[in-house]
Amino acid sequence: MARPDPNSRWLFISLVVLSLLAVACFAYPLYVIWPFRHQDASELGIALWVKRIGPWLSMLCAALCVAVLVLLWGRLRWFGRTAGVALVLLAAAACYGARVNVYELMFHPAGTPQFVTADHAKVDADDMVVAVRIDNVSRAYPVREMAYHHIINDTVAGEPIAATY
Asked: Whole-prediction pTM value?
């Protein structure tokens, strides 16, 4: 029985690492910004840096994955070829994902706010709200709703406002 070629093993490992690096370009910023999760300043700074270089780095990783798979193709059996194609497709999907603004997908605009009087509001006593009062007009925006949207555009007493959380 022939021993596996050590160069092929290292090439395949590099294929795995490159595809995981491409996935990290997409997944890390998404993980850091996840709602209701604590983020410190350094972690957020790294995530924004990865988000900035992610499209280019993931494209480079996907191209290198294709090149490595071409080099390996003749040395692989059907399982290795299938795994290699899956890794290239994973890198290509991550390359696409790194270009999508996931923050806009996660935190889509709230639309037009609907209001009810305080006695009809379904707000628990311990719920937090962002309160706005202009002249004699008051509004309260529940934080649990704003946590997904982060901004409410509204008009209070004829003044346009943007309540954010």
From this structure: 0.64
